[in-house]
Amino acid sequence: MKISCDRLPRIYVTLMSWVLLTPVLISCTEINIKSSPTDSGISATVTPIVKARSGNAKVTTAAINSRTPTQQTAQTDELEDTGDILIFHNPVKDETYQEVHEIIQDSQIFEEIAQTLNELLILPNDIPTYFMECGEENAYYDPSTVEITMCYELIERYKEIFTEEVETDEEYIAEVVNAGLFTFFHELGHALVDQLALPITGREEDVVDEFAAIILLQAGEEGENAVLSGVWQFAVDAEEEAELEELTYWGEHSLDIQRYYNMACLVYGSNPEKYQFLVENEDLPAERAEGCEYEYAQKSQSWEVLLSPYYKE
Ligand SMILES: [Zn+2]
């Protein structure tokens, strides 16, 4: 059965329909993740339990809308669209980041995504997103200013890794854009949780990883490639984390290796037939894979329920 969500799949599809990204083989010494050449529609089973839950779900924001005194937070009973996602590309000083800056700016992909989302979502405040040089490899959402910062340093780091094996200019550009896409949706997830006062339980970092994966997985082949890039980023970071013996069990993020498996599970769960190779290559243990189709359907349905009060009619 296909997910019978109302508008969300349409958001996902329009979101990425313009993209020129092409499937790129991604490989690693320890974990091999390959984009499958086959293209098939997204299908996921929504169990009756999940459907029943979604029928009863209602977003209530009363308990949590006092935390940003200077900023308006959405309330479902008086929805007014007074904000947009805005994209800015700050000039760079260090020439190292000039190329990434230009590719991201010229691609206009983030403007396209913002426009699509602005046409579909009610937002209480503008969410300016700055692509800029930060002096560190980072990306973050600041609830006090309602701003997203995407650092060129972070995109450059992933770009260097992912563009090693590409052959064409198009593949190169696709990899640079992909290096920033998953992170952008992760930060946008934080912004939506804050601005729409979405009632989440569980760790916000895990929740917004899932948001990023789900929104991209439903955006067609190009979105799937961006998720695979994100999965691979976690694999790279996990390797580094292990080497440095910097396992922050106390951190607000799950360990990179856990984030990797969580995302790999959603990728597999979105289309087990297409991503069977993840299990065959032991990139995703069969024991975890068993529940991934359900996990994907449940989480994508949950996001549909969370966001549907904020769709423009
Ligand atoms: Zn985060």
UniProtKB/TrEMBL annotation:
Protein name: DUF4344 domain-containing metallopeptidase
A Pfam family that the UniProt record links to this protein: DUF4344
Native species: Laspinema olomoucense D3b
Cited PROSITE patterns: PROKAR_LIPOPROTEIN
Protein origin, superkingdom: Bacteria
